[in-house]
Amino acid sequence: MNIFEKINSLAKRRGFIYPGSEIYGGLGGFYDFGPLGAELKFNIKQAWWRDVVQARDDVVGLSASIIMNPKVWEASGHVSGFSDALVECPKCHKRFKVDELKKKEKRFICAGCGGLFENKGRQFNLMFKTFIGSAEDSASLAYLRPETAGGIFVNFKNVLDTMRVKIPFGIAQIGKAFRNEINPRDYVFRMREFEQMELEYFVKPGEDEKYFEEWLRQRLEWYRSIGLKNIRTHEQKKEERAHYSKRTVDIEYKFPFGWQEIEGVANRGDFDLKSHAKVSGKDFSYFDEETKERFIPHVIEPSAGVERIVLALLCEAYEEENERVVLKLHPKLTSYKIAVFPLLANKSKLVELARRVYNNLRKDWVCAWDDRGNIGKRYRAQDEIGTPYCLTIDFDSLGKEDVTVRDRDTMRQERIKIKDLKDYLSKLL
Ligand code: ATP
What we know:
Blueprint: H1 3-13, E1 17-19, E2 31-33, H2 35-54, E3 59-62, E4 67-68, H3 71-75, H4 78-81, E5 83-88, E6 95-97, E7 102-104, E8 107-109, E9 116-117, E10 122-125, E11 129-131, E12 141-144, H5 149-154, H6 156-162, E13 169-178, E14 193-203, H7 208-225, E15 231-235, E16 247-255, E17 258-269, H8 271-280, E18 286-288, E19 293-295, E20 298-305, H9 306-317, E21 318-321, E22 324-327, E23 338-342, H10 348-361, E24 367-369, H11 375-385, E25 389-393, H12 395-400, E26 402-407, E27 413-417, H13 421-428
Parallel strand pairs: 3-13, 23-24, 23-25
Antiparallel strand pairs: 1-2, 4-12, 5-6, 5-10, 7-8, 8-9, 11-12, 13-14, 14-20, 15-16, 16-17, 17-20, 18-19, 21-22, 25-26, 26-27
The structure holds adenosine-5'-triphosphate.
C-alpha cells in the first residue's frame, strides 16, 4: 500500500470517512463522515468561524438556505457559464473533463485506455437541478447551490440595513455546496457534495488590492496555525481566472497526488453586486458617511473546502514510526483531546476512580474511554487517531490520587495529581 492508500484505510477503519451509501454499492462523489471525522470537521469549522468571524469586529456570519430563487444563479452567471467541457472516449466510453486530458498534437488522449479523440467536448452544467412543489415542470425548477457565496450576495442589503457594519466589512458562511462533477476523484478531494467556508469581504474600490494581500497573508497564517506546513501559493494566470476576477491566488497543499488547491482567494471586483442589482432591480450601492461618496463595493473572497482541509490534515499528520502509526494533528483539531484508561477492567476500584476522572474531564473536553486489552495497545489505538493525551489510572493512583499522563508525540509519561489535572491539561490543550 502506498501512503495515500494507508491514509484511506485508516480513515475508514477508525471511523473518520466512509464511502457514501456503502451498503448499496456506494454513490460516486459522495462520502459520509463517521464519528471521528464528524468531530474533526466540526473542529476545523469551529476554528475557522472563531478566527474569521467571532474574533473580529469587521466580519459577521450568515446561514442562508441551500436552495434559492433560480434567478440568483442566473445573475451570478452559473446558469449560463458554470460548466465543464465533457468528452466521451470512443474506445472505453468513459467520460472526461477536457482539461484533465493530455494533448497529443491536435487531439486529446484518454487517460485510462489511451484512446484518442478530437476536442469536441460539449458543455456540461455542473449544477444539480431539483423541483419545488408538486409539478415537475420548468416553472418550479431550482438548483442546489454550487457555492455558498450566492447566499451572501443576495443578503448584502439585509446585513447592511440590520447590522451596524461599515465598509470594509465581511459576511462569512459555512455550508454545503453541490457540484455534479464529471469525474469525482482522489477520495474526498473532488466530491459532488462538500462543505465550503467562504468570506465575502466588501471594500471601497481602489482598496481592493491592499485587502487582497492582507487576506491572503492571513489565510496562509491560519493554515500554519492549524499545523499545515506543506502549503504554497499559485497565482492564477489570466486564462485560468474566472472572467470577472481581477486576481486569484490558490492556496495549494502538497497531497500525495500532487500540489492541489485547498482554498482560492479571489478579487471579484464589483461583478456580483452589480449583476444582482441589474437582475433584481434593487440598489446595491453603499453610501460612505465620512466621504459622502456612493459606490458599489468591491469584494475579496477567500473560499475554502472543509473536506480538502480534512484530507490535507490527515496527509500532513500521518506518520509511521518504529512500532506505531501516529496522527500528529494539532490538539485543537483532534476528535478526542484525552483518553482515560483504568489499568485493569476487572478491578472495580480502578474503574471507579477512572470513571470519576473521565466524567470530570468530559465536562470540558471530548474524551475517549478504553478499558480493553493491554495498555500498550490502547496507546497505539489512540495514537492512530491523534488523541494528544492518554491518562492511565493504576494501583498507585488509588493511594496517591494521581494518574499517568502520556504525551502522544514524545510518548513521555508524567504523574499528575488528580486535583491538578484540569489546570495541567488546560495549559497543554
Ligand atoms: P477546482 O479547480 O479544484 O475544481 P474550483 O476552483 O472550482 O476548484 P472554487 O470554486 O474556487 O473551486 O471553490 C472554493 C473551494 O471549494 C476550493 O478551493 C475547494 O476547497 C472547494 N471545492 C470546490 N470544488 C470541490 C469539490 N468538487 N469537492 C470538494 N471541494 C471542493
